[in-house]
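It is worth pausing here to work through a concrete case rather than discussing structure prediction in the abstract. The textbook approach is simple: state the sequence, then state the predicted structure, then interpret. We follow exactly that order.
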Amino acid sequence: MRGYTILDAALQSAVFEILFYSQVEHDAGWRERGSKTSCDIWVVRRGSMRVTYKKKTYTLAAGDVFFLEPDVLYSAVGGPQGCAFTFVHFRAQLQDNPNVFAGFDLGGKTEADAVRAEVYGFENALNSAKNAEPMAQFALKAALMRLCARMIALKETKQKPMAPLEQVLNYIDANLSCAPSVSALALQMNMSEKYFISYFKKHMGQTPHAYMTAQKMQRAYAMLYAPDMQVKVVAESLGYCDAYAFSKAFKAYFGISPAFAHKNKGKTKKIFG
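Step two, the predicted structure:
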């Protein structure tokens, strides 16, 4: 099984809320200064601009992407020929954690060549959303997640000090059917159970128990897409004592029964936000 990272876990469980998006054009005299209350992504479509952010000045050209973190001061100035860019205001939160990207060095510029495919998908999804096409909002959230994930992968992140936690996530992912105890997980990190729960919640936005339940439910939902899959088989594979106990947990999490989800696969959806 592939290595499981903090980013994988965060994006899988995060709730993405797109607040507003648009495309704007400014002349060479445009200036803007302030801070954002949400996460912002700017994708330059034409011209150029200079953005000063965290005491560093970036020059952006067509195709470049800039990420603005909440509550961080910035200033922007249009280039000699002005500029046009797409922007999206959004939140990405994980239960008690209002900004799932807080642990990653995502703010700043990402070069166009490094995210060309992701930007193409994002722009297409945004245009579909503007035209109110079916499932367009779902596609836009998915495209936004892919773009964010790519940008993080390209940067030096703050994940390295959390390598032991990634090992725990790997262990949970590989042993969902066994329902690892919190004490066993804490032991892997040489922590007391109480401190481990606090540490886990600080970085993941939820308790270990809530995280494991969410992972079980997401895996169950995916398994139920198989045409011949039986509910009792899913229950057994995830360590439930019987189909009834599994069905009760599934309905509490998704609001629908596993039998209904299986019968209506493709018609129901668990959206990222």
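Step three, interpretation. The beta strands are 15-26, 31-34, 39-53, 56-61, 65-68, 74-93, 108-110. The chain has two domains: 6-154, 160-263.
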